[in-house]
Design goal:
Two copies of one chain form a homodimer.
Chain A: H1 8-20, H2 29-36, H3 40-52, E1 56-59, E2 63-66, H4 68-91, H5 96-106, H6 112-121, E3 147-148, E4 157-163, H7 171-176, E5 184-190, E6 194-199, E7 202-207, H8 208-212, E8 214-218
Antiparallel strand pairs in A: 1-2, 3-8, 4-5, 4-8, 5-6, 6-7
Helix pairs in contact in A: 1-2, 1-4, 2-3, 4-5, 4-6
Chain B binds a DNA duplex (30 and 30 nucleotides) through helix 3.
DNA sequence: CCCTATAATTAGGCATCCTTTAAGATTTAC
DNA sequence: GTAAATCTTAAAGGATGCCTAATTATAGGG
């Protein structure tokens, strides 16, 4: 049961559910289908299969969430994924996005042993290049959830994890202002339609609409 | 045509044909089936499919060999495989055999770009930990063939690549005497039933029967 | 030159993971 | 509360890659 072999595909599903999950809310299958570039029908099939295997809890019209075992498996994969990201960025000079792509390929061919060796080689990094936590081998590390920037209250700190709605994002502008992927920040002021945020490159005011599309991870110990 | 996507399975077949090939002789399908741990029927099916794709030349009762394009593809995979071997052994402290196993998993999830970056990171190694040549990205490097130790004539040098008949090999003895995987050596004397070989650890006399089971790669520029 | 051991092939299946089509269920929003 | 949008499910099928069992072809020794 511990040594159950998951197909690459199953791993991808579990990982994606872990990634998309927002707190304890189940992930809508439509979201999964989109992320995995697969038809909704396939996702439905797969989720029911994973439920039969005790890895996923699937409630029709609600969505999918992970069982403790599913969580454990997702962590194993995510650990490998993020360790490779660190290696690719820090050692091989990859840009983050390319590293992410490549890590998707490598994670499935990585044994637990290899992950541990890599972890040691990289000097036990605690986060990936975006500042997202790398699960420990024991699987104890809880994944921290990401929120839209708008959910962060004044005085809280955090860092940027992802841009949600690519088309709307002035990437270059944000990069210049120090609010790019991985950037730490602190919310200084919020108003009804904008936020003032402190970044490594100074202060930047962000429209609320835009802030909605910026996913961030709040700093440990807040909320 | 250049960007043709090979399945993991196809890659394995091509790689194995390249590995098992002895000079220009086609590889018997039974041998392939054995190495790949797959039924002869499956190998037959696959070889005919690869032939249809122009990657393999398959002659019933003779065996399979690579077309120039198949050769090119095999080189690409082999390059990745051996680069990973170097990384795993040199950087992560793997033993060779474990590195070989792990490299089998990693090679398929490795893009050409990643291979090049890794190559650079490792400072362009020319051989894997066993001294086998790492093909260059341009695919120009010919694979050197391996021979049984008995085929090496007096004065020639080479290095050990593989033990063929595991059950017959006194591994510990050979390791002690400096004739283990990767060891460089020079043949000093051959008689009708034994050979005297110089190794990093001194000289060792090897019975002809035993020498047959030791695969070696002769040094560049000989023969 | 025949006979046998080995190799090849055909036929039928299985598992995985994906697809499209189409019909039915539920939610959500007005 | 109903209608539109979304989700679920069933059915049928395709591609890959593997299997076993049974049959046929061939090579090579005697």
């Amino acid at each position: 049961m511990n040594t159950k072999i998951l197909t690459e595909s199953s791993q991808m599903y579990l990982l994606e559910i872990a990634r998309l999950r927002d707190g304890d809310a189940p992930v809508p299958l439509s979201r999964l289908a989109e992320e995995l570039s697969v038809s909704p029908v396939s996702v439905n099939e797969m989720c029911r299969k994973l439920q039969k295997q005790g890895l996923v809890i699937y409630r029709p019209y609600k969505g999918a969430s992970l069982t403790p075992e599913g969580e454990r498996q997702a962590h194993r994969v995510l650990r490998k994924h993020r360790l490779w990201e660190v290696f690719l960025v820090k050692e091989l000079g990859y840009a983050y996005e390319q590293a992410h792509e490549a890590a998707c390929q490598l994670e499935h061919g990585t044994s637990d042993l290899l992950a541990d060796r890599l972890d040691e080689y990289l000097d036990h990094p605690s986060t990936n290049p975006l500042g997202q936590v790398i699960p420990r081998p024991d699987g104890e590390t809880p994944l921290r959830k990401t929120l839209p920037l708008t959910e962060i209250s004044v005085g809280q700190e955090g860092h940027v994890v992802q841009y949600e709605d690519d088309s709307m994002i002035p990437r270059d502008f944000l990069r210049e202002r120090g609010l790019y992927l991985g950037s730490p920040f602190k919310v200084l002021i919020t108003t009804s339609d904008s936020m003032l945020v402190e970044t490594p490159k100074g202060q930047v005011s962000v429209a609320r609409d835009l802030a909605t599309a910026i996913s961030v991870e709040p700093e440990k110990g807040d909320e």
